[in-house]
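Re: that chain you flagged

S.,

Sorry for the slow reply, it's been a week of failed gels. I finally had a moment to sit down with the sequence you sent. For the record, here it is as I used it:
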Amino acid sequence: MRYGGNTPCVELICGRHTLIFDAGTGIRQLGMALVNGANTTDFDIFLSHGHIDHVVGLPFFAPLFVKDQVVRVWGGNLQAAGGVKQAVKKLMSFPFFPLQVDALQARLEFHDFSAGDTINLRPGITLRTAPLNHPGGATGYRVDFNGSSVAYVTDIELGAGTLDPALIDLIKDASLLILDTTYTNEELPSHLGWGHSTWQQGVELANAAKVGRLCLFHHDPEHDDDTMDKIAAKAEAARPGTIVAREGLKVCV
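Prediction finished late last night. Pasting the structure tokens below so you have them in one place:
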């Protein structure tokens, strides 16, 4: 109840531009806020992957129903499923949703790329990407803007071996790392192969890559508020300044 129950959606504001990472159920509230208060007419949504908890909120994103809005949806590992356009059309199709993509009032654009590509989104805004270890694949992102950097890395299973050099390169010296830390080390053995990591692994990774601030993200739904409080306290002790994602959290970098 205190940390929130929506599935992943992160808004990143770079000057006048709004970047959105993942379209879980949290994007519904974000969309309403953008329609009511944003002074921009275009948004970019970057999907980590196509699993339902990361895309299920997209059909409820309010700007899609506003004329003259432009919404661009990006995917880095959906080509095998026909690309990001086919994935979204499948999501918004009978019998799962009453409206199809063609009925939306906004202009919806789709962009496929390969995880590992660099995207020069706007002057001064650069996105670097990397493939992540997750069933079916996933894409990690790093945004560099105005001397600061934010890395969004979910869903990923870090494993027990050597850290992926491409991952270290993606997040190295980032101002803020938003990282999948679903489990604890004690819980991990019964979840091997599920595609997620632990907060203890997150601390080790953040230290190895010399990131500024670590944000624990993608909490296990079985972890209630009291459990999350305990994890937050242990993570703070292990790496001072570590924060735990909660609904409505705002961080300036």
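What I noticed first: The two ends are 27 Å apart (CA to CA).

Talk soon,
D.
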